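Hi support team,

I submitted a single chain yesterday and got back a structure, but I'm not sure I'm reading the C-alpha cell output correctly. Could someone confirm the output below corresponds to the sequence I sent? I've pasted both exactly as they appear in my results page.

Thanks,
R.
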Amino acid sequence: MAFKINAVYLGDDQVELTHGLSGSKMLTDLPPDNGGRGRTFSPTDLTAASVASCVLSIMAKLAGREGIKFEGASIEIEKRMQESPRRISSLTGIVKLPAGITPLQREKLMACIKACPVSRSLHTDIKLELTAG
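Hi R., thanks for writing in. Yes, this is the structure output for that exact sequence:
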C-alpha cells in the first residue's frame, strides 16, 4: 500500500509535514547538537517516536484480542546519535505495562517489539533494546 506525506521547507531549519489521508500537520526542527534550536521533534526523533508508537499499537491490538486491560501502558525511549557518519546508533527504553499483567501476557506483549514494522525497517547497525520495567 502506498502512502504520501508532503514535506515543505519553511525556513529557519523547520519542515512542515502534512499527512496524506487526514491533512494533519506537524513541524520538525534541527536538534541543538546539529546546529538547530530543538523547538520540536527532529527527523531522527520521529524515528524513535515511530518505534514507540508502533510497538504500543501492536501491543494494544494483541491486548484487545486477548482481553487484556492495556490503557496506561507506556514506553520511554532514548535515542543516541553517532557523529561519523551522523546517524542513530541506538534506541533503548523501558516498556511499562499495566498492573495485573501475568507473566505469560507480559511475554506475549513483549514479543510485539519484534513484530513492529518500524523496528523491522531499521538498519541492522542500529541497536534496539526495549525492556519491561
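A quick pointer for reading it: Strands lie at 5-11, 14-19, 25-29, 74-82, 87-96, 127-132. Let us know if anything else looks off.

Best,
Support desk
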